[in-house]
Amino acid sequence: MRSILLFVIFCVWAVPSLAAEAGANDFFSGFMHPVLGFDHLLAMVAVGLLSVQIGGWAIWVVPAAFVGFLAVGGVLGLYAIDLPHVEGAIAISVLALGFVIAARASLPAVVAMAIVGFFAIFHGHAHGMEIPRLAEPWKYVLGFMLASAVLHLSGVLIGLIGRREILRAQLGAGIAGIGLHMALLTYAMI
């Protein structure tokens, strides 16, 4: 748990200054986008926590489904194919994933894959909309895809280290609360 805390402290203090030095079109910028984007970070860690909550093969296939559909959404964004309420769907993804974890819901892995896949399309679309403005889009894409997988793995590790259901449920409640706040802010601006 101590190493997780040190990692979080590093990300909060050191990483933003490193990202400012990097160009906006490279692998590092792509990697840092999901890490520094609070909505993306929470959703991806929540996917990892949810996969541990389900257990078994879901620990690997649920995050993999997210990453796969993230790529689909990225392509939609890259080609400027509009999706309705992208930012709202991202906020709702944080709320919904947090709620499912807090409620200790036991979803079948296939249902969880469908849910995270749906939300991943919106997360990917948000990333994909930025790609056409970049000089080296594939470096950026590789960065955000890798960061997404690392964040899922972080959620899995947090879920496995804190094996207690109550801890996972409390984390889920916190994530859901933040998601509710983000959704209210997003839809209040419409």
| Helical stretch tally | 9
Structural class of the helix and strand makeup?
A: mainly alpha
Give the CA-based shape: globular
Average residue pLDDT: 86
Classify the beta-strand content into a percent band: under 5%
Regions with little confidence, pLDDT below 50 for 5+ residues: 11-22
- The percentage helix is over 70%
| String of helices and strands | HHHHHHHHH
Q: How large is the radius of gyration?
A: 16 Å
Describe this structure in words.
The chain has 190 residues and is mostly helical. It has one domain (25-188). The protein is 81% helix and 0% strand. It is built from nine helices and no strands. It has helices spanning 2-13, 15-21, 27-36, 38-54, 58-78, 86-102, 109-128, 137-161, 165-188. Helix 4 (38-54) crosses helix 8. It is globular and about 45 Å long. The N and C termini lie far apart (40 Å). The model is unreliable at 11-22 (pLDDT under 50).
What is this entry, summarized?
The protein has helices at residues 2-13, 15-21, 27-36, 38-54, 58-78, 86-102, 109-128, 137-161, 165-188. It is an all-alpha fold and 190 residues long. Mean pLDDT is 86; it is low at 11-22.
Question: Secondary structure elements and their pairing?
Answer:
Layout: H1 2-13, H2 15-21, H3 27-36, H4 38-54, H5 58-78, H6 86-102, H7 109-128, H8 137-161, H9 165-188
Helix pairs in contact: 3-4, 3-8, 4-5, 4-6, 4-7, 4-8, 4-9, 5-7, 5-8, 6-7, 6-9
List descriptors:
mainly alpha; 0% strand; globular
